[in-house]
Structures are given as structure tokens and as C-alpha cells.
Give the backbone structure.
Amino acid sequence: MTDTLIVQLIPPISGAGADDDEHNTIDCAAQWLHLSSEATPETSNLETGELSGLLLEPPEDCRWIVLIPGEDVLTTTVNLPRKRRRQALQALPFMLEDCIASDVTQEHLAVGPENTEGETLVAITRKQQLRDLLQTFADAGISPFMILPDYAMLQENPDTCQILLSGDRAMVRCPDSTGFSTPISRLALLLNTEQDSESGSITRSVQWIRSADTSVPVLPDDWQINEQLVDDPLQYLA
């Protein structure tokens, strides 16, 4: 059975100028877990360093799962008709123009499954950064098996926001399957804004997932709060 390497990229991601104008080499801080067929995430050694250092001596015969910062990926939902789906997908960029600040033709759209409400999940990220990242791995002889925003590794819950606190960042998986990552200092504001857009009669529920030395932001009194302590955020995601 093939081993799996889970690599989490830590923002900010930077691109060092290359010899040509078409490709920048991506580098940033990273942490990774090497999972063998006999090991569990809890028993695997967590390593940290620079992505460039990992790519200099990458482990062999591994399936790479790369988690990019959720700050660089917008997820949203759209109602796509099941009939004439091909035509709907062709029109998808124009359907999303209102929620994308930049030129939609410069964005990469990844279409996911439907959520429990029958809406289709769409992830949006910058084409050039994704190309640069893929080329950076290709230069090291690596073709990632999967690239995901970090918050997409959190379990979906149709009734609860799943929030993983790691360092000074929060990764959030929302009840509608969308998500985001943000500095913890901005988390309460974003969650309160989301609550304000809902009916005041709806009780919101949050599941904090954190290590014992991480404090949690203050949320409104009418939120239902549950908590789970973990040894390490990346081991939990894995």
C-alpha cells in the first residue's frame, strides 16, 4: 500500500522570481506528516520547515496531499440545474462574477458535490498561483494526488460550524459545506457577520477544535459552544 504525505502550506505563500516571466517558484513555511500503511496520524512524526527544503529531498513512493491556505480559496454554492448541466457549467464563471472581485477569467473554478440543500459547491482560486504551485512540485518530480484548501479536511456537519484553531489561524467548515480560513483576531467578526445575515431566531452552533494552549474568541451568548481538545491540528486533519 502506498504511503501518504500530507503537506500543509502555511501562509503567506511567496513566489520567488524565476528566469522567465511565466513561472514563479512557490515557497513558504510548511508542516507535513508521512503516513505509512502501518501508522496512524497520532503515531506519525510531525515535521516542519520550508516547502523548498522538503522538495529538495522528497520522500519516495508517496501519494502527496497538499493543503493550501484557505485564505487563498473562496468556496461558495450555486444552484446548477441537473438537466443541461454541461451548458450550466459553461456559464458558471458568469454566474460567479458578483462574488469575485478580480477578473473571473483569471480564476480557477473547481466544481464539487452537492450539499444537503441540493446546492453545488464551487472552489475558486487564482489560476496563476495554482499553476506556479503545480510547476514548483513538477520541478521536483512530484505530481500531487490532491490539492485542497486546508479547511476542506474538516468534517462536514449540517448543524454546526467546525472550527480548528492552529497557531494564530482559524480554519472553518460551515454547515453548508463552504469554509474559510482567517486570522483568529478576525474570526469573531466574520462569524458574527454571518449570524447577522440569518434569522435572529436561529441558534448557531460551534465546535471548537484546538490544542490546550490555544485560547478561543468570545462569541455571542446565544451560540451553542462545544469543544474538543487535540494534540496537534495537522494530526487531527489527517
Notes: The CA atoms of residues 3 and 36 lie 5 Å apart. The longest helix spans residues 127-139. The chain has a mean pLDDT of 87.
